[in-house]
From TrEMBL:
Stretches assigned to the N-(5'phosphoribosyl) anthranilate isomerase (PRAI) domain: 5-200
Protein name: N-(5'-phosphoribosyl)anthranilate isomerase
Keyword terms: Amino-acid biosynthesis, Aromatic amino acid biosynthesis, Isomerase, Tryptophan biosynthesis
Domain of life: Bacteria
Record GO biological process: L-tryptophan biosynthetic process
Length: 210
């Protein structure tokens, strides 16, 4: 199966369109006010309205209040919720939506044990741990720390770009890869050329001759 690609941190309709044109399967919208890639509900609606069909929309939250999440769900048509903080599994389930759970690969962390409670997640997203930065740090982590036999499909994040994603795919064979800063010209501003190069590198990683 070809590796799926999510381009996260879209802040402008034209960037969402460019991500889709490059071949991304999903885009991510960040609803975490501390992030340089934060979008309001109004901005998010404009981005979603510009997308062509069959591109999934993922809304990213970091330890957000239940009411805040429900308010966004009522305003923005999201296909999946991404919980990128320390949310326990019951909190992820309460919305009755398909969800992704991010786990941060702290040095020495038991990622298999951390993943176990989220056995109903649509997928588990493994990201680098950077203190005070929930995501989009541009930092990689030790891929050897990724456990075999995760209970749900693996989405790999953390410092991916056109220079390393093919290697990551060959080593880990994730269901999907998630990129943000690795395809930007500035925080929150995506670069169409970089997105195209990233997608080409993903195809090279998938190729048996790559």
């Amino acid at each position: 199966m070809p590796t799926r690609v999510k381009i996260c941190g879209i802040t402008r309709p034209q960037d969402g369109l460019a991500a889709a044109a490059a071949g991304a399967h999903a885009i991510g919208l960040v609803f975490h006010p501390a992030s340089p890639r934060y979008v309001t509900a109004s901005q998010a609606r404009d981005i979603v309205a510009a997308l062509p069909p069959l591109v999934s929309v993922v809304g990213l939250f970091v330890d957000a209040a239940e009411g805040e999440i429900r308010d966004l769900l009522a305003q923005v048509p999201l296909d999946l919720i991404q919980f990128h903080g320390a949310e326990p599994a019951p909190d992820c389930r309460r919305f009755g939506r398909r969800y992704l759970k991010a786990l941060h690969a702290r040095p020495g962390a038991d990622l298999a044990a951390a993943a176990a409670p989220y056995d109903d997640a649509a997928g588990l997203l493994l990201d680098a741990f950077v203190s005070g930065v929930p995501g989009g740090s541009g930092q990689t982590f030790d891929w050897a720390a990724v456990p075999a036999g995760l209970p749900r499909p693996l989405l790999l994040a953390g410092g991916l770009d056109a220079g390393n994603v093919a290697m990551a795919i060959r080593r880990l064979r994730p269901w999907a890869v998630d990129v943000s800063s690795g395809v930007e010209s500035a925080p929150g501003v995506k670069d169409a050329q970089k997105m195209g190069m990233f997608m080409q590198a993903v195809r090279e990683g998938d190729s048996p001759h790559g």
